[in-house]
Design a protein that fits this description.
The protein contains 13 helices and 17 strands. The chain is α/β, with parallel strands linked by helices. The relative contact order is 0.17.
């Protein structure tokens, strides 16, 4: 039977190997809510939502409350054969709480794909059966970032995502010069300013990097999320492609950015879109505008990254991936799921997400 019987909510916390530093925050450990949805015939679907207050506004407590008090009553007793109705009700039931919605969404999609006997990426479209991730260099001194970049390249990564925007502009330029000097010309470098620059400063800094021949693949979210006019100004005045990230949570926001030609690329994250259901709409809108998408992640485990990776593999228009977070964790809490062979990610042959189990410490069960 495809009837949802129970929803379990668990909290996990795992230290990172090295602090993750951006213009917005410094993270020392992953903290997330794990969701386990079980049907009456014993099948299990998995989901996850990390607490990323500075970006999504979602805390562990708010995610837990949304799932237990608002979403669970909508889920218990529902048939997964009407999963569109379930996901529509989830999105209509409350404003915001995009991370909590994403956790439930991915567990539902896991179960639906299992019911069809397909890996989720095949159920969603099956465009490719493996993907390549970049690796992120946290914002530190130019010397430390250069050393980190060398290490990641030696580990097999040939696309690096460099965090900037935390200090003065000259130091950001020096960071990029040092990294390019350390890794040579064959490694792709993309920049993520995490809203850390002012509009004119962003234009001046990007142009300076262009003049220096640093060969930057793209610059992600150079200005404040709500400043679409400023984002467009940067896009219009530099040659380097500009990617919108925090500016795009919803399909409507994606449409506004695309309609105004405010960015050259869109970064989709399940924690922003509220899961795969809305993420697919964003990608389809972008594709109609001729704009490619990247799928990225927050600091989350292989549960959420597995779901995002299935989405990324399924669609032709998703051409870039940023799924390095599980590689930053001191402990892997997931059995099954997407697997890493250096920068290459492959999928289990099992139906759904292919997750067998998740190691956790705190648990509460809702529904029966």
């Amino acid at each position: 039977m495809n009837i949802i019987q129970s929803v379990e909510v668990m909290r996990q916390s795992t230290p990172l190997i090295k602090p993750f530093k951006t213009a917005l925050r410094t993270v020392y450990k992953t903290e997330s809510i794990i969701v386990r949805i079980q049907t009456k015939d014993g099948r299990v679907g998995w989901g996850e939502a990390p607490a990323t207050i500075v970006i999504t506004g979602d805390s562990l407590d708010s995610i837990h409350s949304a799932i237990v008090n608002t979403f669970t009553p909508l889920l218990i007793g529902k048939s997964l054969l009407a999963y569109e109705r379930i996901l529509h009700e989830i999105h209509q039931s409350m404003i915001g709480s995009s991370s909590a919605k994403a956790a439930v969404d991915m567990a539902v999609y896991d179960l639906v794909a299992q019911n069809c006997g397909l890996p989720l990426y095949q159920f969603l479209g099956g465009y490719r059966d493996q993907i390549e991730t970049d690796f992120t260099v946290s914002v530190n001194s130019p010397k430390e970032m250069g050393e980190d970049a060398i290490r990641y390249v030696q580990e097999g990564f040939n696309v690096l995502k460099i965090k900037v925007g935390k200090d003065n502009l000259q130091e950001d330029i020096e960071r990029m010069q040092e990294i390019r000097r350390c890794v040579g010309s064959s490694v792709k470098i993309r920049i993520d300013a995490n809203q850390g620059w002012q509009v004119k400063d962003a234009i001046r800094t990007i142009r300076r990097m262009e003049d220096l021949g640093l060969d930057i693949e793209l610059v992600e979210q150079p200005v404040k999320a709500g400043d679409i006019e400023g984002l467009k100004m940067v896009t219009d005045h530099v040659e380097t492609p500009i990617m919108a990230d925090e500016s795009v949570f919803t399909p409507i926001q994606a449409f506004e950015v695309l309609k105004n030609r405010a960015a050259d690329l869109i970064n989709i994250k399940l924690m922003k879109s509220g899961g795969i259901y809305k993420a697919q709409i964003i990608n389809h809108i972008a594709e109609e505008f001729g704009v490619e998408c990247m799928v990225g992640s927050m600091i989350e485990s292989r549960v959420a990254v597995t779901a995002a990776a299935h989405l990324a593999a399924s669609k032709k228009n998703i051409t870039r991936c940023d799924f390095d977070a599980p590689l930053m964790m001191l402990q892997d809490i997931v059995v099954g799921g997407v697997q890493y062979d250096g920068r290459i990610m492959t999928f289990p042959k099992a139906a759904g997400l292919g997750i067998v189990d998740v190691i956790h410490s705190h648990q509460s069960v809702v529904g029966s």
